[in-house]
Design goal:
Layout: E1 8-12, H1 22-29, E2 34-41, H2 52-71, E3 77-81, H3 83-94, E4 98-102, H4 107-122, E5 126-130, H5 152-160, H6 211-225, H7 229-232, H8 245-249, H9 255-261, H10 271-293, H11 315-322, H12 329-341, H13 346-359, H14 364-374, H15 382-391, H16 406-413, H17 418-423, H18 443-448, H19 464-480
Parallel strand pairs: 1-2, 1-4, 2-3, 4-5
């Protein structure tokens, strides 16, 4: 690239890192001053945070990014408003002649970026976008017939059979600064953090947002949890998952960095553990592939047959589900973990989603919206794709008639009740024989544990067997209408 001395605007979005940031490296290589900016768009869908929990994360991630930029002798400029108008003002204020960014793939973001790129190029500015949020480009990876992939296994095979992901680039030690900086908003004035009440007060017990926190989680996972990952990942009481999802979602670490960390591992890491973890990385890619080609994934059933499904609008049962008061301990533990820490173990996400959809017959879209607002790793692709997968309405989905039994799921994956007792403390003294079915415990056992069903812990919202039969009947009615 020919060196140019005019400033370049580096537009941060979901790429809040310096390492392996292609737009940042290209801006630096251009030769002139680099002006990093983050824009809180007036449309909440375009701010980078999907819900309230992720706004907490965004606040701390931007703080961390600002500190990292200061160490690189640079600065993060914060602006709020319409992205095009903000960029236009910055170009005028700074004399910049170029805007660089890393691509995003959700429909709203793609539409905005395409429009902005066209308008500024038409006005004579240099506008460049770069890859890095995904390992593949959804517009380029196609089936033999030239269309998008709809099933995961062929997608995985195509990905696995392609070129190895590019090795990640190191962060630059310094960035060239302009002679004077444009004005910046104050992050506190954006009021991203909750207050009165501070429902996120326990988030920091689990999370350290920012590039350094992402790198530490990756290091810990590779050293301590990748061995045995294939089996351990299903047990919510074990520290056996990577805890990287919110860092990936906000771009504090790139998937290429994660992939690269799994190269050349010690021999004590079994191939099945490594393959299972890599498949999880590629499942994220598959979800974005689906969203890119089917932009209404969060609103419409992938399988239109489910448009005829008769959902139940039961606000009382939905509220009980959101609060972790269903009377099924593994479900309640998951929903309370979600509220307390902004995250839920993957296995338990499937159990809680199945319960809402199939035990309560509540529309998957209501659950997706709740997760979107309460998860720190809320993702516009993975969230709806996974909800539709559980519902049976999605691409390569689990069939609707696969109805998780929350009692058996708890007994299998939380056999000692450690996970339940952590998040449902009113059951901590209950014998593990009944920890996943307190409603079957004798009165003297409940009394000894200090439990009074219906008062200290709820009775089940529904009977599992009855709910299962009702769900299968509803599915059968839908099929008859095809």
């Amino acid at each position: 690239m020919t060196a140019k001395k005019e400033p370049v605007i580096l537009w941060f979005r979901k790429d809040l890192r310096l390492a392996d940031n292609r737009a940042l490296l290209a801006a630096k290589d251009r030769g002139g001053p680099v002006i990093p900016v983050y824009i809180a768009h007036e449309n909440p869908l375009l701010t980078g945070a999907l819900g309230a929990a992720q706004e907490w994360w965004l606040h701390h991630s931007l703080e961390a990014l600002a500190r990292t930029l200061e160490q690189a002798e640079s600065k993060l400029i914060l602006r709020r408003g319409n992205a095009e108008s903000v960029l236009k003002s910055l170009l005028k204020e700074t004399g910049a002649t170029a805007i660089f960014w890393n691509r995003r793939y959700e429909p709203h973001g793609v539409a905005v970026d395409s429009e902005i790129k066209k308008r500024f190029r038409d006005d004579g500015f240099e506008v460049e976008s770069f890859a890095g949020y995904l390992l593949h480009e959804p517009s380029k990876l196609k089936t033999k017939s030239g269309g998008p992939y709809r099933v995961y296994t062929p997608f995985w095979r195509a990905f696995e059979g392609g070129d190895e992901p590019t090795e990640p680039a190191a962060a630059p030690k310094t960035l060239p600064s302009p002679s004077s900086w444009p004005k910046s908003d104050t992050l506190d004035n954006w009021k991203l953090l909750p207050s009165k009440p501070d429902w996120a007060k326990d988030f920091s017990d689990v999370w350290t947002p920012g590039e350094a926190g992402a790198a530490e989680n990756l290091k810990t996972f590779i050293e301590d949890a990748l061995k045995g990952y294939e089996e351990g990942r299903d047990f919510p009481a074990k520290p056996a998952t990577s805890m990287l999802s919110p860092h990936l979602t906000m771009g504090e670490i790139s998937p290429a960095q994660v992939w690269d960390a799994t190269r050349g591992l010690p021999r004590n890491i079994a191939s099945n553990d490594l393959s299972r973890f890599r498949k999880e990385i590629v499942w994220r890619e598959f979800c974005y592939h689906l969203l890119f080609h089917f932009p209404e994934l969060d609103e419409k059933n992938w399988n239109s047959s489910f448009d005829a499904f008769e959902w139940h609008a039961d606000s009382a049962k939905f509220t009980a589900w959101t609060k972790g008061m269903t009377g099924y301990p593994i479900v309640d533990a998951g929903m309370r973990q979600l509220w307390k820490h902004g995250v839920m173990h993957n296995r338990v996400r499937m159990i809680t989603a199945s319960f809402l959809i199939k035990h309560l017959l509540i529309d998957w879209r209501m659950g997706e919206k709740w997760f979107r607002d309460t998860l720190v790793d809320a993702d516009p692709a993975s969230n709806p794709a996974n909800w539709q997968w559980v519902a049976g309405s999605g691409a390569d989905a689990s069939p609707f008639f696969r109805i998780f039994n929350p009692i058996l799921q708890g007994e299998k994956f939380d056999p000692d009740g450690g996970y339940v007792k952590t998040f449902v403390p009113e059951l901590e003294n209950l014998d593990k024989k009944f920890i996943h079915k307190p409603f079957d415990a004798p009165k003297e056992v409940l009394k000894k544990a200090g439990i009074e069903l219906g008062k200290t812990y709820p009775k089940p919202l529904v009977d599992h067997n009855e709910a299962r039969q009702r769900a299968l009947a509803a599915y059968s009615d839908m099929k008859k209408g095809d």
